[in-house]
Each structure stands twice: as C-alpha cells, then as structure tokens.
From TrEMBL:
<dbReference type="InterPro" id="IPR027268">
    <property type="entry name" value="Peptidase_M4/M1_CTD_sf"/>
</dbReference>
<keyword id="KW-0862">Zinc</keyword>
<dbReference type="Pfam" id="PF17900">
    <property type="entry name" value="Peptidase_M1_N"/>
</dbReference>
<dbReference type="GO" id="GO:0042277">
    <property type="term" value="F:peptide binding"/>
</dbReference>
<dbReference type="GO" id="GO:0006508">
    <property type="term" value="P:proteolysis"/>
</dbReference>
<dbReference type="GO" id="GO:0098552">
    <property type="term" value="C:side of membrane"/>
</dbReference>
<dbReference type="InterPro" id="IPR042097">
    <property type="entry name" value="Aminopeptidase_N-like_N_sf"/>
</dbReference>
<dbReference type="InterPro" id="IPR014782">
    <property type="entry name" value="Peptidase_M1_dom"/>
</dbReference>
<keyword id="KW-0378">Hydrolase</keyword>
<dbReference type="GO" id="GO:0005615">
    <property type="term" value="C:extracellular space"/>
</dbReference>
<dbReference type="InterPro" id="IPR050344">
    <property type="entry name" value="Peptidase_M1_aminopeptidases"/>
</dbReference>
<dbReference type="GO" id="GO:0005886">
    <property type="term" value="C:plasma membrane"/>
</dbReference>
<keyword id="KW-0482">Metalloprotease</keyword>
<feature type="active site" description="Proton acceptor">
    <location>
        <position position="317"/>
    </location>
</feature>
<keyword id="KW-0472">Membrane</keyword>
<comment type="similarity">
    <text>Belongs to the peptidase M1 family.</text>
</comment>
<keyword id="KW-0449">Lipoprotein</keyword>
Length: 373
C-alpha cells in the first residue's frame, strides 16, 4: 500500500486505528480454509449479486459462527446444506446459527446468497470508477478491499490472520468487459445470464488481498523469464504511452526477479497484472497477482522525478508479495511492520539500479514515517 508516496497519511490511518479498537474474531473458535465466490454484476441497477461458500473448521461446540458482513443484503444462509439464519451484531459482524441445535467441532460449510451495491465515493469494496477513452465516458469495476472492506463484497472472516484459498468465478455482463482476478483464468463459457470466467484456486491469503475487476481497458503484456519459469505480466491502463508501458514493465520485472533472489523464495503465483483507474484511496494496493494503482501513477509523463516515483511505488507494491502477503501481520495494529519492510525493500532495490543514497533517504525520511506515530 502506498499513499501519496507515504504509507501513513490522512483518512486511511484514521480508519486503521478505529478498526484496531473494534472486536476481533476468535481464532480458537472457527477458521476458514476455502472460499468459493461467484459475483454477477447488474450494471443497469448498480448492484451485484453474489454467492459464497465458506469451508470452515470449528474447534469447539458453538451456538453460532461469527464473521463479518457490511452493507450486504443477505437473502439465504445455509449451514451444511441446512437452512439457517443469522443475527446482526455490532461492528459489522453477523453470527450464523442453526434454527435449532449447536454447531459441533469439525468441518462445516456456510453458504450465503446476497447482493450489494457498487461503490463510487468513497472507494471501498467493489468500486465503480468513471473513465474517458477516445472521447467516450465508460466505467470500470474494481475491488478495493484493504484494510477491512472485503466484508462489503462477500461475507468473510475479514482479518489478516484468517488466511484461506479462494476459488473465484466472475460473470461478465457482456463481451465488452474482460474479467481478471488474482489468479489466471482457467476456463470461460457462455450462459443465458452472461459469460462465466473461472479462475485457478489461489494460494492461502488474507481477505484484503482478494481482487478482481471487470474492465475493457487495453493492456500491454510481456513475459518474465525467471529460472526456467515464464511469468506473464499485463498492464491495464487508458491512454498509456508506449514508453510508459515499457518503463513500468521494466520495473515490474526487476522487482519480481530481485525479491525472488533476495528472499530465496520464488514468486508463488503464476502471473502479475497491474491496473490503473480513478480511485480516491491510496496510491496503490498490493493485491496478490493484481496490483491496483490510482489514475496517473503509471501514465504520468516520464521525467527524471516521475520515473523515480513510478519505480518506487511499483517496487513497494511488489515487495509486499513477500513482505505482507506471504509473511502476514495478524492484525492491523502491526501494519507499520509490513509497510516498514516494504518501504525499506523498495529503496533496497532502487539502490541496486540507482545509488546507495536511496537507502539513506529511507533511513532519514520514510523510516521515521513507517515506525513513528
């Protein structure tokens, strides 16, 4: 996450500290292992319809399973294929229960059918963003879930410690839109209600890293060859110059190679997408396999200063693939830890292809920002 080239600034910081004071879910009660998510947009009515099946392991006898949901209209709840119900709690939580009886220790499935609204302002949840291309105004639909906004898109255990695998299906409303997500698409087929895009199962990750988009942006693509692996990289932007695309691609390739070498851990996903759109949130977000950028970050005219900023932001977000996504904080009161590491590592890489003073800048400037409040 980068906010105007500084990880902690303004509204986002306030949200984090308010959330740290709220009730936390209990890891000793119920833990998700897998989510199966289906999202179908209804563009005419500015809403989306969803279904999620959550595979959960409970560790003790429970009257109900508590998880997060915010501003979702839940119409059906099933526990182990038996119709149940839910109770709304405070702090954006719900508790799912059987109509009678308790939930025994063991493996269970929770199924929710629901709908939600596209967000425009502020940019939280599933965002509807306006853009102009070739003189025409259109919309792109993109998730923005960090820190605690996944609960606005699907019921979930919306804390970083609750890692799980994700199987995602997206239903494009028409052929105009391409659907993308954290993982590569494995199949696409047409139905009476739209075009279904199914994506490969993800690695275990936190809810805030789940990402998908419905976009008709043009994209630029190249492939990184790294130790026998071929990793496709795509850049989705509007009105990007050839020079910008090539420079951003160069930065992405350098970062993936450097952090893989530095940690001796190869990038664990099979692809990387970068998408830039009009958003009011942070400058960029490190969704695993699908990084989102604020409009103008990747397409700003290239100058000495702007090249440096593009480079640092791209390095920062890709460093999070290791420092934050792979090694993850348990809760948001430790966000300084992942942001501090990512900021240091962006300068560490920049020093490799620039000069050692970049690390000195970090120590004198950003290090203080990342570790002092």
């Amino acid at each position: 996450m980068r906010n105007d080239y500084c990880p902690f600034k303004g509204e986002f910081t306030v949200i984090i500290f308010l959330e740290c004071c709220n009730y936390r879910l209990n890891l000793s009660e119920a833990v998700p292992t897998t989510y199966e998510i289906v999202i179908k947009p209804d563009l005419d009515n500015n809403v989306f319809h969803g279904q999620v099946i959550i595979y959960v392991v409970t560790k003790e006898n429970l009257n109900g399973i508590t998880l997060h949901s915010d501003e979702l209209n839940i119409t059906d709840v099933y526990i182990n294929q038996i119709k149940g119900y839910y109770v709304e709690n405070t702090d954006e939580r719900i508790t799912v229960k059987y109509n009678s009886g308790s939930i025994q220790p063991g493996k269970h499935t929770l199924l929710f059918k629901y709908s939600g609204k596209f967000r425009t302002d502020p940019s939280r949840g599933l965002v509807k963003a306006l853009y102009e291309y070739n003189g025409t105004k259109e919309y792109v639909y993109v998730t923005d879930l960090e820190p605690n906004w996944a609960r606005k898109v699907f019921p979930c255990f919306d804390e970083p410690a609750f890692k799980a695998k994700y199987h995602i299906k997206l239903v494009s409303p028409n052929e105009t839109y391409v659907a993308i997500s954290n993982m590569p698409e494995i199949t696409k087929f047409r139905t009476s209600y739209g075009i279904v895009h199914e994506f490969a199962p993800s690695v275990p990750m936190s809810t805030y890293l789940v990402a998908f988009a419905f976009t008709n942006f043009p994209y630029y693509t190249e492939t990184l060859e790294y130790k026998g692996r071929l990793i496709p990289i795509r850049i989705f932007t509007v009105n990007a110059s050839k020079e910008n695309n090539e420079f951003v691609m160069q930065c992405a390739k350098a970062a993936l190679s450097f952090y893989s070498d530095y940690t001796d851990i190869s990038y664990p996903l099979p692809k990387v997408d970068l998408i830039e759109y009009k958003r009011k949130a942070t400058a960029a977000t490190e969704n695993w396999g699908l990084i989102t950028f604020r409009q103008g970050i990747l397409t700003i005219p290239l100058r000495i200063y702007t090249k440096s900023q593009i480079k640092l932001i791209t390095y920062h977000e890709i460093s999070h693939f290791w420092f934050g996504n792979l090694a993850t904080i348990a809760y948001w009161n430790d966000i300084w830890l992942k942001e501090g590491f990512a900021t240091y590592m962006e300068y560490k890489l920049s020093a490799q292809d620039n000069n050692i003073t970049q690390v000195n800048i970090y120590i004198g400037k950003d290090c203080k920002t990342c570790t002092h409040f």
